[in-house]
Amino acid sequence: MAKKRTKSKKPTSSQKGFSLKLSKQNKIILGSLLIVLSIALFFSFMSYYFTWQEDQSMLSEFKDRNAQASNLLNKFGASVSHFFMYKGFGLASLSFPLLLAITGLYLFLGLDSKGLIGKWIWGLTGIIWISIALGFFAFEQPLLGGLIGYEMNDFLQDYTGKIGVFLLLVFVLMVILVRLFNFSPEGVAKFFRSQKQQLKSDFKKSKSTPVTVQSDDGSVELSMETDTPVAVDTYTHKKDIPPLQSEAGLDVNLPQEEDLDIDLKVEKVTEEKEETDVKAEKLVKDFGEFDPKLELGNYKFPHIELLDQHGATGGITINQEELEENKNRIVSTLKNYKIGIAQIKATIGPTVTLYEIVPEAGVRISKIKNLEDDIALSLAALGIRIIAPIPGKGTIGIEVPNKNATIVSMRSVIASNKFQKAEMELPIAFGKTISNETFVVDLAKMPHMLMAGATGQGKSVGLNAVLTSLLYKKHPAEVKFILVDPKKVELTLYNKIERHFLAKLPDSEDAIITDNTKVINTLNSLCIEMDNRYELLKLAMVRNIKEYNVKFKARKLNPNDGHKFLPYIVLVIDEFADLIMTAGKEVETPIARLAQLARAIGIHLIIATQRPSVNVITGIIKANFPARIAFRVTSKIDSRTILDAQGADQLIGRGDMLFTQGNDVTRLQCAFVDTPEVAKITEYIGSQRAYPDAHLLPEYVGEDSGTGIDYDIADRDSMFRDAAEVIVTAQQGSASLIQRKLKLGYNRAGRIIDQLEAAGIVGPFEGSKARQVLVPDILSLEQLLQNETK
Ligand SMILES: Nc1ncnc2c1ncn2[C@@H]1O[C@H](COP(=O)(O)OP(=O)(O)OP(=O)(O)O)[C@@H](O)[C@H]1O
């Protein structure tokens, strides 16, 4: 596709430049011809001015060999000059030899002819302008402006009058001065200023030329004599005067007058461009920036109508009675504990209302914090959370759940300005804060997220909210998901967008991973992908994926060197506890490795668990997941395990959550997106044109397969020989080659590769690289196989 587009684009005239495809010798010949021609024209034109009257009569006798013209170049000179000067542009025609000479020199010296077209355009504009101007001012002498100048003047004056033509000439002159000579009012002012300074310094110089005259009494007198030359250092303008010597042998050093009128010239340093940059610029000029979305150029982002309102059209309803009631209870409860309140303010959120209290002077904050349970009891409400003090404010917050919680629909957060205008790499609209603001974060900055909460508290909805946000904002070329769903039901809907948004291992049938053993392979494959990406970043000399992709789009990275546009990869594991219980270290190690290193290369992990215990969320996992989300949990300990703070045990469930990215904990109401909505979105995307396959991750074969396997010759696959021939001919030991050439499944191809290794035809497994082929040609292969059977 990309090629098609590039072909249809025609290069612009400036790109074409003056790119005559001539050999070097031809350029020299053509260059010399133009130079000679320009000299001939110059002499013809010059002498035409003195001889035109005499020569005019013989123009008709050009063919007559005996007729002679007075022009320096005889009849040729007379005719050409008559054409250019009399019938053409008059005196301005002298520019033609100049332009020809420049062109000739460019060709002769083999200079880069890029600017030549510009010179001709400006030259011709100048010729026309001079011709008309001379026609205008020297109306009486038509030879100065030539016939064209005269006629054009006449023509213009018929329409605009003399003043009109004059104004037009002034305007065109301005255009020429501004465009060609960078004329500007400041430039003119600077010129006059420097002239003035020059005059001033000359004047000073002439006035202050000191000369010594020695009097009889040995004293030193100084007098001024204007015309005595004094050496002046032109750079510093300091007078170079030797120290005077009095008779008494006293060295008298004349104080040198400091001249502060030194002009500082600042020379602009032009950045040196590397050759690749120049090439890239040319490619971008010719074909435009690389567009990763081009392959699915007609892709339509899901529209907002696919999402439901969930009855939350009117926003939050304020129940005045409830507010008054809660306020009175808070005030009286605190009064019982002898805590006076100076001021109280309520902020109503979708699920909870925040009462901000300014206690009276002298009340200790810790006292209120300790009374948390008592206050909760007297307010008879679940999910009271006390924030003492609210960070950044001098107040204490008491969060009280609303009697009727409002559902925050995914539709409302997706449609919000904040999300729509978010300039983030991977924007996620989580929901709304307590003050009813839409909460949008960048997954790329997090860079990995841990999500935990007791069962049924909104984790799956939270994951769907994350995925939906990305689906609404990102093109299939920009992000790929790897979905791990041991529960087998939660993420199945995303199957429909496999060929748009999912990534998988080359051998797997389903893109959504439900089998724990496959997770290990996927994680290891992701580690290989990570290493490969780091290698690419190193080659490109950039620090992260964003810079890499910018450079790739600007065509500064050559795809022939293995460079390609890198999509973000988001790995989502829905039930991490299950995984760590069955696979333990085998998953923990690659996850920790990815979490530690993958941020720069655009691989981001989201792991969710309903069992937030320390053996699931281990220290090593926790240390690498700074962004954490806690839905409601059953104990304070669980809350601490997730957030390193309590509070998650006091949430009210149904998407009520706490979010932290390191320090502050923010209470949010997660946006609600129901399964039918996700189904509609995936259906909408899935029905569009897709890539031929899901995004393929690098091949990873487990450690136990491969090396050291001793296959019996009799057990060999029936396609063994064909496969061996394919591999040896291509000299490339990869399972996917066998798959493609012999149309085999991945598993069978993998088995054959193992057999080839056992037979000594290919080398051992080398990670993401193809195996080494140990047999150089088909003949050697024949010999090897024959020897085996002997
Ligand atoms: N943000 C939300 N707003 C309103 N209701 C919600 C929200 N999130 C979840 N719920 C309600 O809670 C129910 C359970 O949510 P969800 O399936 O996400 O829980 P879960 O934590 O994934 O449970 P499990 O671990 O058993 O899969 C939903 O069916 C829905 O009714």
Short structural description:
With 790 residues, the chain is an alpha/beta fold. Helices cover 45% and strands 12% of the residues. The chain folds into five domains: 13-183, no CATH class; 188-252, no CATH class; 320-401, Threonyl-tRNA Synthetase, Chain A, domain 2, CATH 3.30.980.40; 410-686, Rossmann fold; 701-789, Winged helix-like DNA-binding domain superfamily/Winged helix DNA-binding domain (Arc Repressor Mutant, subunit A), CATH 1.10.10.10.
Would you give an account of this structure?
The chain has 790 residues and is of the alpha/beta class. The chain folds into five domains: 13-183, no CATH class; 188-252, no CATH class; 320-401, Threonyl-tRNA Synthetase, Chain A, domain 2, CATH 3.30.980; 410-686, P-loop containing nucleotide triphosphate hydrolases (Rossmann fold, 3-Layer(aba) Sandwich); 701-789, Winged helix-like DNA-binding domain superfamily/Winged helix DNA-binding domain (Arc Repressor Mutant, subunit A). The chain is 45% helix and 12% strand. It is built from 27 helices and 19 strands. The strands form five sheets. The protein has a nine-stranded mixed β-sheet with strand order 10-9-18-17-16-11-15-14-12. A four-stranded antiparallel β-sheet has the order 5-6-8-7. β7 (385-387) and β8 form a beta hairpin. It starts with a helix and ends with a helix. Bound molecules: adenosine-5'-triphosphate. Residues 407, 453, 455-461, 610, 654-655, 670, 672 line the site of adenosine-5'-triphosphate. It is found in: Cell membrane. ATP binds at residues 453-460. Belongs to the FtsK/SpoIIIE/SftA family. The chain crosses the membrane at residues 28-50, 89-109, 121-139, 159-181. One of its GO terms (cellular component) is plasma membrane.
